[in-house]
Amino acid sequence: MKPIVSARAALVITDASCLILLDKIGHLDLLPILFSKVITTPEIISEYGSAAPHWMLVITVFNKKLQSQFADIVDAGEASALALAQEITNDYVIIDDMQARKLAAKLGLNIIGTLGILLKAKQAGLIAVLKPVLEKVEKTNFRTTKALIESILRYAGE
After folding, report:
1. pLDDT tens digits, residue range 2-15?
2. DSSP letter string over the chain?
3. By the 8 A CB rule, do 96 and 15 touch?
4. 67 domain-assigned
5. What is the CATH number of the domain that holds 66?
6. Containing structural domain, residue 116
7. Which of 90, 99, 113, 125 lies 20 to 30 Å (CA to CA) from residue 32?
8. pTM attached to this predicted model
9. What digits encode the pLDDT tens for the residues 38-95?
């Protein structure tokens, strides 16, 4: 993953897990602060279960054949995000599912996960203390490990 030097200039494509988790813990507003453009697909908005925020662009994938090929490997939302990432220039794909991350890496995409977004928010001074935020994450159904949480906290200097 390439470092975010000027995060605000970055265009990201996000999967549903990021939207769902950040919404659950009250930090969905970080995305338009950290990134100049946040893009997703109708499939992801459907998985998210709420209307897209006003600052988010929702774009339909043109290459349905490619999306269908990806859907043989990952779920429909992830397949749409990865197919869209092949169609439009982007800086990062926000994706958490391990199988989808492996496919994204094979495609040569720059990947960041939702926990990476929270770390970047801490580094940008948008979150003063990361530990209570990660404790909220642990109380959700988001799949993570204690080791990963501890590693992020160490990296954040907490």
Report:
1. 444 444 558 999 99
2. ----SSGGG-EEEE-HHHHHHHHHTT-TTHHHHH-SEEEE-HHHHHHHTSPPPTTEEE---S-HHHHHHHHTTS-HHHHHHHHHHHHS--SEEE---HHHHHHHHHTT--EE-HHHHHHHHHHTTS-S-SHHHHHHHHTTT----HHHHHHHHHHTT-
3. yes
4. yes
5. 3.40.50.1010
6. 7-155
7. 99
8. 0.89
9. 999 999 999 999 999 999 999 999 999 999 999 999 999 999 999 999 999 888 999 9
> Number of structural domains, the chain?
1
Query: Is residue 64 within 8 Å of 42, Cβ to Cβ?
Result: no
Q: Which residue has the tokens 């995060």?
A: 7
Packed helices 98-106 and 76-87: angle between N→C axes, nearest 10 degrees: 20
Higher-confidence residue of 34 and 155: namely 34
Two tokens, residue 36: 């100049």
**Taking all residues of the chain, what is their mean pLDDT, rounded to a whole number?**
91
The verdict on residue 1 lying in a domain is: no
